[in-house]
Amino acid sequence: MASFFSRKPDLAIDFGTANLRVIRRDEGVVFDEPSLCCFSKSGVAPGLIAAGMNAQAMVDRTTGNLEVKRPLRRGVLQDIDSARELLRYAVPKALGRRRSGGRFAPTCCPAFQGRRR
């Protein structure tokens, strides 16, 4: 069995508090948008209406049945469902039509967010 680090990653995902970045091995940064999601509150399960730049344009301009969320606050994952929907939006947009086979992508996010002494 191959080691985790023996294979070069196809993508790298930087899930930051302000921006989500997707980097392809030979192309560099292919997706760099704000870490924002806009959801519809109506219905059984909230549906994703917009993400990234489109959701940023909706901040403070939404009606009562729409809600703009940040999956991370101060470097800490606050809403796993929003994070999942944002990744479902970002990765296909970054890959475009070149979605052949499985992708190997390490994901990074802040590991420690405590007080410094």
Automatic annotation (TrEMBL):
The keyword Hydrolase is assigned to this record: no
Pfam families: MreB_Mbl
Coiled coil: none
Domain of life: Bacteria
Alphabetized UniProt keyword annotations: Cell shape
SUPFAM superfamilies attached to this UniProt entry: Actin-like ATPase domain (SSF53067)
Family stated for the protein in its record: Belongs to the FtsA/MreB family.
Annotated protein name in UniProt: MreB/Mbl protein
Organism: Sphingosinicella microcystinivorans
